[in-house]
Amino acid sequence: MKKGLPRWPMLQQVERRAVRTQQMIERLDVDSLQLVRLERGKIYCRVHEICLQCRVADVRKEWLQSKDNRTERPHFCPNLEQFLSCSSSKRTKKDETT
After folding, report:
1. What is the tens place of the pLDDT at every residue in 69-85?
2. Among 26, 55, 87, 91, which one is least packed by beta carbons within 10 Å?
3. pTM higher than 0.85 for the full model?
4. How many whole angstroms separate alpha carbon 74 and alpha carbon 28?
């Protein structure tokens, strides 16, 4: 941290949660560009806001660290519906059927 800047005690927690949000996006194969485009970025911002206020952050951390549940959906996640609506694999399956 640069000298002279005030320290924000929650900085590390906010950064960890932002990283875990990105890990969720990657693990669920979310098309980030599609997520960003929803309502001109409002949904993307809302997803991050929800993650910052998440009450099950410990459960999310365990789910991300687990190798056993690669195919199990994180039903605990309040953003799951948004993530699945922008899933790259969902788009690919749709493209294959047309």
Report:
1. 667 899 999 999 999 99
2. 55
3. no
4. 9
